[in-house]
Structure formats: C-alpha cells, structure tokens
Amino acid sequence: MGVCCDLFVPLQAMRQKRILVVDDEQDLCEILLYNLRAAGFEAEAAYSGEEAMDREPLRYDLLILDVMMPGMSGFELAERLKADETTAHIPIIFLTAKDTEDDTLRGFGFGADDYVTKPFSVREVVARVKAVLRRPTPRSVEGRLQGKNPSGEGSLISYEGLILDFGKKTTTVDGESVSLTKTEFELLGLLLKHRGQVFSRQQIFDAVWPEDVVVSDRTVDVNVTRLRKKIGRYGNFVVSRQGYGYLFEV
Q1: What is the pLDDT along the chain (250 residues), one digit of tens a residue?
Q2: CA angle 77, 216, 41 (to 5 degrees)
Q3: Is 250 helix (H, G, I), strand (E, B) or coil?
Q4: Reduced to 3 states, what is the DSSP secondary structure of residue 14?
C-alpha cells in the first residue's frame, strides 16, 4: 500500500476545511481519512477520477490525488480541473509511487501544490495538507513583497514585457497571460522585485513557503525549473549562483 501506518495524529484546533482523497486503494483512503479527520478536517474519499468529478470538486478546499488509477489518472484529473477557471484555484497534492524528476516536474506542471511519493508517513501528508492550506493569501503576499496597502494601487512589478499584477494576481509575458501557481507567483514576485539580489534557498523558503512546512532544496529547484519554462524568454533571467541561490539578473 506504500504507507507508514502511524495512525495517531493529535487533534488540533483549526478552521474546518474539506479534503477529498482520490485513490483506488480503499485501505489507504481509510487511513488518510482517519488522520485527516483527527487533525480537524472534513475528509471524504473518491475511488476514481470519474467519481471525483461526480462529487463536484468545487465543494472542496484541497484534493489529494493518486497518480496511477484505472480510467482517469490523477494527472488527467488535475489537468481537467486546472483547465476550468471555476476549479483552477483548488490546491492539489499528488500521491504517487513515481518519483523520477520528470514525473515530479510533470506533476507540478499540472499545477500541483505539493508532490508526495510512496511510501510516505501519514503524519507527513497531514503536515503538508496543513502547510498548503496555510499558505499566505494573495493579499498577505502582496503586502510582504510590495510593502504597500493591498488595494491594488501601485501593485505592478515588471521587467520589459514581464508583468506581475498583485492587485489582479495575474502574470503577463509579452502581452500573453500566463497561469502561475501561488508558489510560482510569489517566487517570481520575490526575485523580480529585488532584481540583482541573490536569495539563498533558505531565504526563499522563508519568503514563499509557510513556517510550518518542511521542504528540501530540490523543492525550490523544481519550482524554479517550472517557473522558467512558464515565463518563456524571461526564464533566462532567473539565474542560479552555485552554492548561494537564485536571482533575477538583468
């Protein structure tokens, strides 16, 4: 089943969020549901991508998707959700036994907010769910990066044809709208606002990820790689300094 069965997770007081677990392994779903509910979430399961679509994904605050399922795969389900503007905002965490870099990049390419490989600890999954749901809202990100009242006034950051609008939460590349995840948007905003300044991976962690999430250096690298691809020719300006970190170099 590919899971460490540490079933007990302390109940923590937190605002109720609805989680949908989508996996064809019923035993795994039951373990995840038990722990998510113990952590204070409302959690339900669907045993296929098709069933998940029938459950109206818009009702949920976060989806946990297995990648390898009969019929509609987790990647296919994520692609369908992200292509629909009414569900594109719903965070997604992939659970999968596929852990190659290409698979990870493909998952993030479908708009995943996190990617957990099997076998995994249920505690880790619950912690990552909390981390994704606690990520700063666009208003708090704007305030942190812009140092302005989040009214939308003066909220543009740009370099040539690369424009981030913190008021509308949009990204434009040479006149074309580009869809970025929250993490990508915040990462690009950080580097673009402080052009020429090198940020270590730890500094990027502190600025972009919430305090209670634990991620590896590779997580930053994967997000930078994905961001570079999405912003076209401007990806060449996102430069690494070996042993130091990343910067937007002009």
Answers
A1: 555 544 444 444 345 889 999 999 999 999 999 999 999 999 999 999 999 999 889 889 999 999 889 999 888 998 888 888 778 778 899 887 765 555 566 666 666 778 888 778 888 899 889 888 876 433 334 444 444 333 333 478 888 889 998 878 899 998 899 999 988 999 999 999 888 888 888 888 888 877 656 666 678 889 999 999 999 999 999 999 888 899 999 8
A2: 50
A3: coil
A4: coil
Residues 6+ apart with CB under 8 A from 163: 156, 157, 171, 172
Residue 232, sorted as left (phi over 0), alpha (psi -120 to 50) or beta, turns out to be left
- Tell the residue number behind the tokens 């722990």, with chain if given: 35
Q: What is the DSSP letter of 137?
A: P
Give the count of beta carbons closer than 10 Å to the beta carbon of residue 227: 24
**Paired tokens of 185:** 């948007």
As a whole number of Å, the CA-based R_g of the chain is 18
Task: Give me the amino acid identity at 94.
Answer: F
Yes or no: say if 19 and 129 are a contact pair by the CB < 8 Å rule.
yes
Q: Whose CA is closest to 41, among 108, 111, 130?
A: 130
Give me the long-range contacts of 119-123 (CB less than 8 A, separation at least 24).
119/2, 119/3, 119/4, 120/2, 120/3, 120/4, 120/95, 121/3, 121/4, 121/6, 122/3, 122/4, 122/5, 122/6, 122/7, 122/9, 122/31, 122/32, 122/35, 123/6, 123/9, 123/35
